[in-house]
Hints:
Layout: H1 2-24, E1 29-31, E2 41-44, E3 47-52, E4 58-61, E5 67-70, E6 74-79, E7 87-98, E8 107-110, E9 114-118, E10 122-127, E11 133-140, E12 143-147, E13 154-157, E14 161-166, E15 169-174, E16 187-189, H2 195-201
Parallel strand pairs: 7-8
Antiparallel strand pairs: 1-16, 2-3, 3-6, 4-5, 5-7, 6-7, 7-10, 8-9, 9-12, 10-11, 11-14, 12-13, 14-15
Amino acid sequence: FKNNHIRRKRNYAILVSCLVVACVCISSTLFLSKPLIENALVADAGVQTAYVPAGQRAQLDMPDGTKVWVNANSTIKYPTLFSKDERRVLLDGEAYFEVAKDESKPFYVESDKATIKVLGTHFNVSDYKTLNTYSASLLEGKVNVCFKGVKAGIITLDPYECVVKNGNSIVKKTFSNEDFLFWRKGIYSFEDCSFKEVIAQL
């Protein structure tokens, strides 16, 4: 009986190790069915807050007509009515924005590591407080990314350009593959991601 018990424990440990290694080495597309949740918004003192738990995603319509898709384990906050001078939202996690154009009211996405300024554009931003990484990817328009606490200055992105921050390293580059944006449809693509980064998005 004792040998059987030890054998089961050993097999379980091997199985867990294999699962961890598989997740760490993920470099292909992982298909998941994640329904859009309803009633994600909670209003309090003129501020709308949407929290999307693990395994879920949400789509929001902001008061200016901007559309936002919010990924799992993410929180977004914005006023019930934007001010006359600007449109500012707070993000912890990942979201895709289709910003309604209004040149008189710049749109800001403020997160833990950076602030993005736009007028009207389509872009994705990922900045989880629990991770040491940040990324912003632009599909349409133009954005300015200003990192906090570093001397990188303002980084301007044109369509199909992205900026990635990993620790103290900041890299601007182009991209052509849009697989990483499929999460809006419940389809996830991971390439060269750590286990912690994968878990954060699931």
